[in-house]
Amino acid sequence: MLASAPDGALLIDCSTIDVESARAVAAAAQVNELRIVDAPVSGGVTGAEAAALTFMVGGSDIAYEKAKPILGAMGKTIVHAGSAGAGQAAKICNNMMLGVSMIAVCEAFSLASKLGLDAQKLFDIASQSSGQCWAMTKYCPVPGPVPASPANRDYQPGFTAAMMLKDLLLAQAAARSTGAKAPMAAGAAALYDLFVDQGNAGMDFSGIIKLLDHE
Asked: Average pLDDT over the chain, rounded to whole?
């Protein structure tokens, strides 16, 4: 593809891949005098439909400025994270936090149910307390509290469990290569691996509450 692109072309990669691959592709593009950015995305299906995605962009200042108006047609938040690969680094770290926090939210709502605490009451309290997080307030994994969450449409995906597992495995690989410690992310990856192996790859990642409730 690099050999076929016209001189001065701008290439935008919105996939989520490992940082080193993104940097290798950027280096190859530079040899061919092409502009390239890695621009992984956050926001899922609902964000795409509303043109409200978040783009985390890695690349040179010049490439970023060329890409920004194009990305702006699809998203409302475009952040220049740094040089080549920085967008991928941001996406991997962001989704590592999301995967871990979603499991924590699922565990809390599962425990609340067993303690006889109504899910809406827990939501009303925790959403205004120190337990507040995006995984609960915007994407609550139990039906009811957040009408737009996948829990209210039988966990039809905005972001599949298989995709979350892929990103958590990318985070684990990055942690190993850099010597970073990420034990909670490792635990989250193991749970999502089990969930996917049970035939839930296409279910929304918040559906992992079913695994916890079953266990």
From this structure: 95
Q: Which residues of 119-135 are buried (b: 16+ CB within 10 A; e: fewer)?
A: beebbeebeeeeeebeb
- What pLDDT does 179 receive? 97
Of 106, 157, 159, 158, nearest to 133 by C-alpha is: 106
The answer to whether 77 and 55 have CB atoms below 8 angstroms apart is: yes
Tokens of 160: 């599949």
- Tokens of residue 31, six digits: 């040899």
Q: Tell me the C-alpha distance between 192 and 201, whole Å.
A: 9
Which pLDDT band, with edges at 50, 70 and 90, does 14 fall under?
very high
Query: Tens digit of pLDDT for each residue in 131-189?
Result: 999 999 999 999 999 999 999 999 999 999 999 999 999 999 999 999 999 999 999 99
d(CA 214, CA 132): 25
Residues classed as catalytic: 91
